[in-house]
Every structure is written in structure tokens, then in C-alpha cells.
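Task 17 of the worksheet. Students: predict the tertiary structure of the chain below and write it out as C-alpha cells. Keep your answer in the requested format; marks are given for formatting as well as content.
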Amino acid sequence: SALGLPPLNANLATKMLHQTKIYEALKGVRGMKGVDTDKLKEVMVRFSVMVVDHPEIMECDINPLIAGPDGIVSLDSRVLLHGPEVKELPQPAIRPYPYQYSKTRDFAGKKVQIRPVLHEDEDKLAKFYQ
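Model answer:
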């Protein structure tokens, strides 16, 4: 099993999948096709976004979530909301990406995007500092 704090992105979802004991089986075993791991990561990221966007959610359970080469299906799910007695809803441990600080500017005749660093920038940053 693996644990990650929302909000997840594709890189974090990938790292979480790699940490599971079943990761090798997800790629396919005994001649069977593997799971569409890109779709599985998308489900993980979207679920994470839902949890962050709706702090009134107290608890979510998806069981079972069936993943195969042809898609991903939830056979049963349950969502519990905080009751009206909860006056202050919990905030995520990790703040969502600050999209409001992304800007496009003209610089020397070219359009340049200025934005905070994304987790997906990790490889590019490592190359930049080499």
C-alpha cells in the first residue's frame, strides 16, 4: 500500500503506484494485459482534487475499485459529510497549486509564462542546475 496527501498530481500518483506491492502485477502477469496505469493515475488525481475542492467531505470509501486493461470501475462507493455541528471545515495539509500566480508576459518579443514551480518540473530543474 502507499499513502499520499492530497492534492496529488501525475508524478505523485506515479510514485505512489511504484510504492505498492502490486505494481509489477499492474503491468501484466502470466500473459495477461496490464492495467491502464495512466487511467489509474488520472482516477487518483481526480479523486484527490475532489477531496481538496470539497472540504465538507469527512470520509470517502471506494471498494472495490476494479482496474483492468479496458478501464477502471468502482462497484461501490460511500461518501460521508461533516455534520452541521462542524463550524470550521478541515483544510488540506498541502496547499493546492497557486494557479493565480501564473502569468504570461512579453519578453524580448516572445511570450513567456511565469509561474510557481510544479512538481512535474523536478527533472527539468535537476538538468538546469547541472
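Marker's comment: The longest helix spans residues 37-53. The chain has a mean pLDDT of 91.
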